[in-house]
Amino acid sequence: MTAVAHVNRNAVTATAAEDSQQFLTFMLGGEVFAIGILAIKEIIEYSGLTTVPLMPECVRGVINLRGAVVPVMDLAARFGRPATQIGKRTAIVIVEIDADGEQQVVGVMVDAVNAVIDIAPTEIEKAPQFGARIRSEFISGMGKVNGKFVILLNTDQVLSVSELEAMAGVSNLAGAET
């Protein structure tokens, strides 16, 4: 696996304007999404995953990241959409989330990484309670960028390990019943 980019979170926070927040934008099924830069550890090229039996459909497998086993989630599948089609720009964004008070590292498959952008707090609207094509608790807000909205993801909710474990348990039970 070749590293595409490392994110120095300390340098990002030191250079960021006090009144704006930085987000990594990426494409997923033709839509632009963003994750707060402070949650991102690095971005790597997509390469083969090791599949793990009896995992929820949205967990595509695991990767070996410098000796650590990191689960990789397909965000499109997590949102109830068709699985991500692997292309030349497909990447895995390595994200650190808070899982029941502990830090957990998870990879997120995206169609393509765009850029790191600054969004002023005045340009961030509350998450819509309806009308979005993903669950409202997955959205931390809607950022206005160049007259368009960017969906700001709540990574702790989207990548919730306990919810995925519950999904795996349901999948395992369903598989056992057939």
From TrEMBL:
Organism: Pseudoduganella ginsengisoli
Domain of life: Bacteria
Gene3D superfamilies: CheA-289, Domain 4, SH3 Domains
PANTHER family: CHEMOTAXIS SENSOR HISTIDINE KINASE-RELATED, CHEMOTAXIS SIGNAL TRANSDUCTION SYSTEM ADAPTOR PROTEIN CHEW
A cellular-component GO term for this protein: cytosol
Protein name: Chemotaxis protein CheW
InterPro entries: CheW (IPR039315), CheW-like_dom_sf (IPR036061), CheW-lke_dom (IPR002545)
GO terms classed as biological process: chemotaxis; signal transduction
CheW-like domain sequence ranges: 20-164
